[in-house]
Fold each of these.
Amino acid sequence: MKVSIAYIDEPPFYWTSREGFVTGSDIELADVVLRAIGVTSIEHHLTSFDAFLPGVRDGRWDMNVPMFVTAERAQHVAFSVPVWALGDGFVVHHGNPKTLTSYNAVAQRSDARLGLITGQVQLNSAKSAGVRDSQFVMFKDQPDAVAALRAGTIDAFAGTAVGNRAVASANRELEAVAHETSREKGVPVGAFSFNKNNPALLQAVNQQLRTYLGSADHRARMARYGLTKAEIDSIAAASV
């Protein structure tokens, strides 16, 4: 049994190593789960973020690596049970010169420029906080956004707090700033996504995820990529 899965370059979740290997926390999770349900061959497809939904919907591959679950996206694909819960944050220059600690802080500074990946959920979060269109600079992927931040084209790059920690650790002149998350809003969850006409694969993956998420092996594997107890506990309890 062969399964094809699409991914983008966004450490620590998924990326292509210098040696040409596809790796990352979500890649490893997919490998463990798919092998457990009898998949003997896993094919990885490097793509762009905006190709995820149409690609799996049109059958170019069988599933996507985890992304944030939204009602709009659920109109096009079928999501698995959640596999992580991640808050947002910024990557900024060391010392955070403009004190950008939240989307609201960006909205209050007309001279602040915020980098975002086209199609990701952070855009709506920023707009809801009052960030103006003139403050956004859009990029096709994380490497382009990080390069722009290092060059001073933008003042902050918005992403997940976990992903931002990985970016900052690889760039000494940058640092990660996590946003505070209110209890009322909760923390957004992410999940694998599938073609709606492939319920058998979705059901098999969900059954294995419910068994595996929160296990000692799962926690140990995710810890190697920087995912903490906080990012696993809520989804592990929900998946039971």
Note: The CA atoms of residues 87 and 146 lie 19 Å apart.
Amino acid sequence: MKLLETSAKGFQKKLEKLCGQIRSGGGIEKAVADVIDQVESRGDAAVCEYTEKFDGAKLTPAKLRLSDAEIAVASKALPAAQRKALRDSLKCVIDFHKKTKPKSWRAKNPHGATVGEEFYPIQRVGLYVPGGQVPLVSTVVMTVALAKLAGCPEIVVCTPPQADGSVNSALLSALSICGATEVYRVGGIQAIAAMAHGTKKIPAVDKIYGPGNAYVTEAKRQLFGVAGIDLLPGPSEVLVLADKTANPAYIAADLLAQAEHGSGKEKVYFVTTHRKLIDKVKSELAKQAETLSHAKEALDVIATKAIAVVAGSLDEAVEVANYIAPEHLELHVADVEQRSLVKKITTAGAILLGSETPTVLGDFTAGPSHTLPTDRTGRFFGGLQLIDFMRRTSIVKYDSKSASKAWPTVRAFSEMESLDAHGRSLQMRVES
């Protein structure tokens, strides 16, 4: 774990450099572009080739889509306790997001004209769900549930297959419970390219959602405009901001939890006003990792990518947090400080308050979607929300009286912009 102090000379430049070192960019643009070009030009054949190359699964185009029967069989195989957990998480997510559903409205503007907004679900949405060794079942709940609640008629899901072509039964059960309408055993760049450009077996979608590794994120970046893109959530990251009241065991557990995802590009930040707390957390990290199934992956991330920052005050800690703009930000500070810090921290994807609120609650069940901005994109992105599965149209209706009131303004703008046809289009109505 690298150690920085805000009081040290050149601190900001060192922080910027370290943040840059662990970002998921790099020389992957051409590799991603090549796969996208092949999928666009050769369709399903290219999708199958890359699925064999990257996932080890030999599939024909006819086997890309999972049948309803396959999904049903897998769903029935899931233990009852796990099905119950899925439904509990789904309930929390729906309860949270239904409060955010926008409503169409009408009102009068200063001219007396009717103006307003209409909201519509996006017709065909494509959701990417990471699979492989760490199948993100929770991502199904955090994306598909929102699409269903928004009323999207066609909810398409792509997820990587195992080498034998199968898909994790818990994933399939979640997809069935949450309401996916099409499921394809396709992952990686080829999945994003297929959903954006469309193939014979995978018709194009209108907008693509979901987290992924650096290659998936780059594919989404390159295909923005071909299809809509939600945001660019990459490998998981967490920032724990702590004062002297914090429990080092809790902090270590939460850092390991985000480091264990397995890509090696996870980002782990620990910012504290209490220097001695860092040593206590390091001791806990080593002790707790001994019993983890992904210990090696997690400790590798801690050793090579984690950054500990000693801040001179909570205000300095907040400045560091706002620069990093973390996906998850945990506040392990005294209760009296939490309210003010929430107002000062303006770039985090999600803020988890207090020592009893580990990030895992937001990951699995609290309610807000865990699809959140990473790589400092929290400066301009928020987390996934229901409105992202909808689009709005503005409504305008003038009559002769309100049009007459607007005419002087329209005439002035037409003159300033030398667009006389614009002005005439209203003038002829007013004069008649």
Note: The domain at 29-107+122-229 is CATH 3.40.50.1980 (Rossmann fold).
Amino acid sequence: MAHAAFVIHSRPYRETSQLVEVFTREQGRQSLVARGSRQPRSSLKGLLQPFVPLRLGFAGKGELKNLHHAEATAPAIRLTGTALYSGLYLNELIYYLLETQTPFDEVFDAYHDTLKKLANGDGIEPCLRHFEFYMLNILGYGVDFTQDARSGSAVCPEGWYQYQPESGFIALAKHEPGAYPGDHLYALAELDLSRAEVLVSAKRFSRQALGPYLGGRTLRSRALFIKGKRGSRSE
């Protein structure tokens, strides 16, 4: 059986092979051995790269399977600059948040669509926030933005709220550093990111909500993005 897939990470293995992490539509995240893929004349050389739509054939009984066949089904999705770092960030979310060998066909489609939007020049921040919110909801980590997690009452648009991880938003007696305005929460519930200040709140919430599930890791894509920004400023 062939599988629609994207490579999300790879590394050298032994002298001529690679260990490749792929995200497939039919069987979720899989770990594969691509034997001989680093040999000069390998048909896989240059193919097992991020953002290339692939069709793969693989087999094996354990968690580490053998890659038997790979072909591109479309040209590589071209990402440059900040969009490239954003694509790598999506790959890290897939790698760290999804358990292996579990189908997530809807996530696969959302991931593919987000890559295409980034390549087409859509706003990077809204694209990432939409995908992050989708991931939180599909994995059961989402929250109700319109209800006070402590009292159960409706969020007041004029009030201030504090986010408590894995619980939700709690009303505050007054504004405190890091508090969320109630009207921002209603906008987040509708994924209305048209206001710049709401977009800032969306990013802060995503960082807080995803943090516990990323295990406190410093994501490589963020480090590369920061390094790239520093490099561009020094030019």
Note: The two ends are 50 Å apart (CA to CA).
